[in-house]
Write a structure and sequence with these properties.
This protein is an alpha/beta fold and about 210 residues long. The protein has one domain: Beta-carbonic Anhydrase, Chain A, CATH 3.40.1050.10. The chain contains eight helices and five strands; from the N terminus they run ααβαβαβααααββ. A five-stranded mixed beta sheet has the order 2-1-3-4-5, with helices on both faces. α3 links the parallel β1 and β2. α5 crosses α6, α6 packs across α7 and α7 crosses α8. The protein is globular. The protein starts with 7 loop residues before the first helix and ends in a 5-residue tail after the last strand. Belongs to the beta-class carbonic anhydrase family.
Amino acid sequence: MATHPHTPSAAWSTLMAGNARFVEGNSNHPNQDAARRASLMSTQHPFVMIFGCADSRLAAEIIFDLGLGDAFVVRTAGHVIDNTALGSLEYGVEYLDVPLIVVLGHDSCGAVTATKNAVATGKMPAGFIRDLVERITPSVLTSLRKDKDSDVNAMVEEHVKQTAARLVENSPIIAGAVTRGRAAVVGLTYRLNDGRADLVYSNGSIGF
């Protein structure tokens, strides 16, 4: 990467340029050589934090054409927030000065589908999957209140929006960075068919 983005708007531009290359099949695979690896032995300066779904089809560094040291990535099924995930994101803001936080969902999400089915049938899944479903349920219910015929992808978009908003609401560290213009929070939904990431939420200045 020719320059390291230090502002939310520069980070946003770099991130979306990488996604455009991936969609077009022209990925550069930057920052993946031995020299880059050696340069990161004692320090890291990622320009983006990606809080995404753990789905195997949502490999963040690939879909945004990034390399070693570019992205601080936190993933849970359905990008469900818990204290550990939130603490990890706060670490990136407080200690790594990361200027852009991305909440990344995707269409046909299994965790959201499981929640949709649980809401429809009243039958909860077993084990700790139930915890995931309980945390996603408010987003599914909100989507259904807006449109009783909401499909899974509409629910995913609502869940991305609610997750991104909750990061700012629940974390004084993240909220303070956004207020001071040091960071921005955005929500993206990823299309499995064409690889494109679409903006559905933003809080902070990303250049438009």
